[in-house]
Design goal:
The complex is a heterodimer. By secondary structure, chain A is mostly helical. Helix content of chain A is about 65%, strand content about 5%. Chain A folds into 2 domains: about 200 residues, no CATH class; about 210 residues, no CATH class. In chain A, helix 1 packs across helix 6. Chain A has a two-stranded antiparallel ribbon. A two-stranded antiparallel ribbon of chain A has the order 3-4. Classes of the chains: A mainly alpha, B mainly alpha. At the A-B interface, helix 2, helix 3, helix 8 and helix 10 of A face helix 2, helix 4, helix 9 and helix 11 of B.
């Protein structure tokens, strides 16, 4: 057995293809790691700038109602391996008591030139996707067919060794050869990562990278086995080679790009959208009615929500909605620096009103979210998930999905941030309640003491620990491994029945 | 020579790769046609609806010349190209509209005038669908056809040498360059048969559909695209011959070719683009907002300083009008500057990717299909021209009204008579063919040059082949 492995290994190691594979992998991975690190550093810098800017903008606001708390999503350092949704989806969310934030309400900072999105973005997993599969097939196409043609297969089989052992030896040695360039190039890129000062990887991150490596090996093995299968079935090197190349072209180039245009897109559930939006509108209409009712029945004559306050500053209020994203909210902002003498008696009325309005707005926003969340899920997420399943029908899609899950740049990973943002909103609201911010004079006026933003709870987003990543990645990795096992069994059966 | 080409052709026609290539290309092209027929009518419908909406807006605003001038001609839409199936050209990442804004300024009660404004966010911020390339002709030709070309020639010389037939052929009194050209022609014909078949099927499906009309101009463009595709394929055929002549074993030749192909076709364009993009850092959106705010504040400071002392009525209107116009012009200039910096960055990145033949061919397909970045620049240019026309129209109409005091920018100084909506210039987004040719000429020359270099390389290598 060991002799067999050694023989195969030497056969493979001394070939031109091995040298070429190692060289090209190193070249591409190292060059791209450089580019990706620079790109990551740029994104991190723009994230830090945005955080600072949002802090500053918040401090400048003298009233609570004018203040807009914003939180920013930091770039994920593992996006170097698989960029996933990290660059594509919004990375800045407005935290407000008026609306529960979701992925669809996010803005984007740091993408300074949207035109640059025209160029396909690269990551290390994409390089592996293309190169590893190609090399696996190049290593495999003549494993049986070549020996069959040159007659050495007959020679080997005359020895009293089981055919299963020969198969295993071939598989092991070729995989060893293929893993070497993979590991060396990954090692180099990890070294490059650690030399960059902007990137700090913790132990969880290294485990995640370990997961990515494991998945890469499984992916590599799938393509090697596909090559072996072709080689065992065709028995001619030239045929095996042609078939391998076309199958590679189909699986790697054509299928992932074509499948989504071929399968019919599920129709956009317009009825659901309309009905959900109507419900949401109803909530806010009720809210508006109650608001007006309050204004009409309170001790102060007139129905002006601003209590006819006149002074230095600005005020504004509106209901606004976006039926596409099911967004609906009521916004009232007052930003006064000072009032006249005759406004003072109105103050208690105004304060009481804003206290009432704050609680009402939060309530309406929370009820809106109860309708909005499942509707958004069905309109956007479910349809995208169905498409993702189609993509996973090819090993390339599985590999991509699994590595995204490991890196935490998949949709779920990005949505974790919005989950954290919603929790943060709750803590901001609690802070507002605890400090009676809604009823305070600082809610609408900065003349007697400005809004104090220093006590506001701080937002920090920690990516989930490795367990979460593993939980999301393992199903896809298992599928990859299963494909491996099935292919191996099929090859074994074919090889057993081969007549030499 | 024809004899050799014919022999190559017959060899190829019977081979597995020919069958596989035909199936693959046919499948891709038919998919392309089906998707296009599904999507294009919707696109056109949406475009027409938006155009009509914009026209209705103009009609309502035309009740008064001042309102029309202040609120502007509405949104300007990019006309979708009929040949979008040839090259998607990153259209989903390009905005299809140039906006205009006007603002209600709170201090002083002056309304800001209309100015051009360019959408700054990419349109798919909330798109959570999986990220895939569109299967357009540019993809099929750029990736699949080039791979097929390599698979057709990797053993052209080395395979014959292995089998020993090369010696036989060279024993005949035929000069070597004839053999080489014959081989190239044979391979080219055998690659173009499945490709032409697939293209024909694609066009057949598209042209039989009643929803899409391809004009004579479009057919001309398609013809050009087809020839560029053949040129691009022969580039890879020549590369295949070159490597195959230099290397003694066809397996090694294939490995080398695949590596070159993967590097230059798959990786080089995006890597180079991101490297090149890193060299310049255009004005960020935050900076843009900041500069706009500064200019706005400065303009208003000047305004307040002017009115600090009493001014007579006629001069007041004059100054207010100038203030409004200057404010709009300033803001528009900053917008332009921001856009120009972004465009410069993209242009540089696109220029750098020309190292790779696939980028060159993609640029060519885009310019002939009327999509992509160059087309977007044309659209922006059209929008600017329209803005100039629109302003000239306002000035002309205003000077035609004897009651107006001809101070544009403020209600009191302008004609308030209703305008005939039909007389307002309409925005029409036109494609300019001659400009396409000029833009494409450079790329075409590069492609030809590359082909000549590779072919002469193949010739030199083949001449020195020892049998």
């Amino acid at each position: 057995m060991m002799t067999l492995i050694r023989r195969e290994l030497l056969d493979n190691l001394m070939t031109f293809r091995f040298a070429a594979a190692t060289f090209i992998m190193l070249l591409l991975v190292v060059a791209n790691t450089f580019v990706l690190i620079i790109d990551y550093e740029r994104r991190l810098a723009s994230h830090n700038d945005a955080v600072k800017m949002h802090q500053r903008q918040l401090q400048e606001k003298i009233t609570y109602s004018a203040g807009e708390v914003r939180v920013d999503r930091p770039p994920n350092p593992l996006s170097i391996f698989n960029v996933g949704f990290d660059k594509r989806l919004g990375n800045e969310v407005r935290i407000s008591h008026r609306v529960v934030p979701s992925l669809w309400d996010a803005g984007m900072h740091g993408s300074d030139n949207p035109f640059m999105d025209m160029f396909a973005s690269m990551d290390i997993v994409f390089i592996f996707e293309v190169i590893l599969s190609l090399f696996a097939l190049i290593f495999a196409y003549n494993a049986f067919a070549g020996e069959y043609e040159s007659g050495t297969l007959r020679l080997v089989l005359t020895h009293p060794i089981g055919r299963g052992k020969i198969l295993v030896a071939k598989y092991m040695s070729a995989m060893l050869c293929l893993i070497v360039p993979l590991l060396i190039s990954l090692l180099l890129s990890i070294i490059l990562l650690t030399t960059s000062t902007a990137i700090s990887l913790n132990s969880d991150d290294f485990l995640r990278i370990g997961g990515i490596i494991l998945t890469s090996v499984a992916y590599l093995s799938v393509f090697y086995l596909i090559g072996l299968l072709i080689s065992a079935a065709t028995r001619r090197t030239s045929t095996a080679l042609m078939l391998s190349m076309f199958i590679w072209g189909f699986l790697v180039l054509v299928y992932p790009n074509m499948i989504l245009t071929v399968v019919p897109r599920p129709e956009s559930p317009d009825a659901l959208r309309t009905s959900a939006f109507n419900q949401i509108e109803n909530i806010w209409e009720t809210f508006d009615k109650e608001r007006k009712h309050y204004l009409a029945t309170d001790d102060f004559p007139g129905e002006d929500w601003g209590y006819e306050l006149r002074g230095l500053g600005s005020r504004g209020a509106n209901l606004m909605g976006n039926s596409q994203r099911l967004l609906y909210t009521y916004r009232s902002v007052m930003n006064f620096e000072g009032f006249g003498e005759k406004d003072e008696p109105k103050m208690p009325h105004a304060q009481k009103h804003f206290g009432f309005l704050g609680a009402q707005t939060i309530d309406a926003a929370d009820r809106t979210w109860l309708i909005r969340k499942p509707a958004l899920e069905e309109i956007f997420i479910q349809r995208a998930d169905i498409e993702r399943i189609y993509l996973k029908l090819s090993p390339v899609g599985l590999y991509d999905a699994a590595t995204q899950a490991w890196a935490g740049t998949d949709l779920l990973g990005v949505r974790d941030f919005f989950h954290a943002a919603r929790q943060y909103r709750q803590s901001v609201i609690n802070y507002f309640y605890d400090n009676k911010v809604f009823e305070s004079r600082q809610w609408f006026a900065g003349d007697k003491g400005e809004a104090d933003w220093s006590g506001l709870p701080q937002f920090s987003f920690q990516r989930d620990d490795i367990n979460t990543n593993a939980k999301r990645a393992i199903p896809d990795v298992c599928l990859l491994l299963m494909i491996n096992v099935v292919l191996f069994i099929v090859i074994f059966l074919i090889f057993i029945k081969t007549e030499v | 020579m024809w004899h050799i080409a014919k022999r190559e052709l017959y060899d190829n026609l019977n081979s597995l790769r020919f069958a596989l290539a035909t199936v693959l290309l046919l499948g891709l092209m038919l998919t392309n046609a089906a998707v296009y027929l599904h999507e294009h009518p919707k696109r056109i419908q949406k475009y027409n609806a938006s155009i009509n909406e914009a026209l209705t807006g103009v009609t309502t605003r035309a009740e008064s010349l001042y309102t029309l001038a202040q609120e502007g001609p509405g949104l300007l839409y990019k006309k979708p190209s009929t040949l979008r199936f040839c090259a998607e050209g990153g259209e989903p990442f390009l905005p299809n509209v140039v906006g205009g804004t006007f603002l209600w300024s709170s201090s002083g009660g002056l309304k800001g005038f209309w100015r051009l404004n360019y959408p700054s966010t990419s349109p798919n911020l909330t798109d959570i669908r999986p990220n895939v390339t569109k299967v357009d002709w540019a993809f099929i030709i750029g990736y699949v056809l080039s791979l097929i070309a390599i698979l057709f020639t990797f053993d052209a010389v080395s395979g014959e040498r292995e089998r020993g037939t090369l010696r036989l052929m060279l024993a005949n009194p035929i000069p070597r360059h004839t053999v080489l050209i014959g081989k190239l022609l044979g391979a080219l014909i055998s690659v173009s048969i499945p490709f032409a078949l697939a293209v024909l099927m694609n066009l057949l499906v598209i042209s039989t559909s009643s929803t899409v009309q391809l004009g004579a101009d479009a057919w001309g463009r398609l013809g050009i695209i087809f020839f560029i595709a053949l040129l691009y394929a022969s580039l890879f055929l020549a590369l295949g011959l070159l490597v195959s002549a230099r290397v003694s074993r066809s397996a090694v030749s294939l490995v080398i070719l695949l590596l070159i192909w993967v590097t230059f076709v798959v990786f080089v364009p995006s890597t180079l683009a991101s490297i090149a993009g890193g060299f310049s850092s255009p004005m960020s959106t935050d900076e843009l907002w900041q500069r706009r705010g500064e200019l706005y504040a400065k303009r208003w400071e000047r305004y307040d300083a002017y009115f600090a002392e009493r001014v007579e009525r006629s001069k007041e209107i004059q100054f207010k009008g100038e203030h409004v116009i200057a404010e709009a012009e300033e803001q528009e200039r900053v917008n332009e500057e921001h856009l120009a910096q972004q465009i410069a960055q993209v242009k540089f990145a696109r220029g750098t990717t020309r190292v790779s033949p696939i980028a060159i061919s993609q640029h060519l397909f885009e310019s002939f299909a009327g999509t992509g970045f160059e087309r977007h620049l044309q659209f922006l240019e059209n929008a600017r021209t329209h803005a100039r026309q629109f302003r000239k129209f306002i000035a002309d109409t205003d000077s035609g009204d004897p009651e107006s005091s001809h101070i544009i920018g403020i209600r009191e100084g302008m004609s308030e008579k209703p305008v005939n909506p039909a007389a307002v210039p309409k925005f029409e987004d036109m494609l300019n063919l001659s400009r396409d040719f000029n833009a494409a000429l450079m790329d075409l020359l590069l492609l030809v040059l590359l082909f000549v270099v590779l072919l002469s390389g193949a010739y030199l290598a083949f001449v020195r082949v020892e049998v």
